[in-house]
Amino acid sequence: MQQNSGTEDIAVLNQAAGGNRILYDGLGPNALGRIDRDVLSQSGIAYAMIFEGVNDIGTAATDSATQKTVGDRIIAAYTQIAERVHTQGIPIFAATITPFSAPGYSVAAQPYSDPEREATRQRVNTFIRNSGVFDQVIDFDALIRNETFPYQIQVGLQGGDWLHPNAIGYRKIAQNFPLDIF
Description:
Layout: H1 31-40, E1 48-50, H2 54-59, H3 64-87, E2 92-95, H4 115-130, E3 136-138, H5 140-144, H6 167-175
Helix pairs in contact: 1-3, 3-4
């Protein structure tokens, strides 16, 4: 952003929290409960972005009823967050949830691996991409997923746990971030 004349004077306030979830507290307070603190109470906020959901999906039980409920609640929370941000006249961007399953859905390699969880991820990503709730969508999923096995990150971009990208994966995300949305 600093090397682009259209964004060189935009500062980024990153209120990320490791292990964070939208719906429930994890290693820190949930995103739904942090929206006032992290976004709305900050001065000079011109844009907001949300990139959340993987830990909600990945920590919920794998049965279809639980995953349907989690997906429904994530979608409702995304909608509520967007409405609250829009009330303050702030555009909100959303990033799709990146893949988090290991090859063959191996839970030994990645505990979140499960076809039901993948179905929830796909459903939430469809909402993010197509709902019109967000002012812009950044498709992190499309950038780093394995086209042959879309439930996993490309082998050369995953950081060893099949959940987080490696430095090359994060660089790819950064280099492909659409700066023209600002």
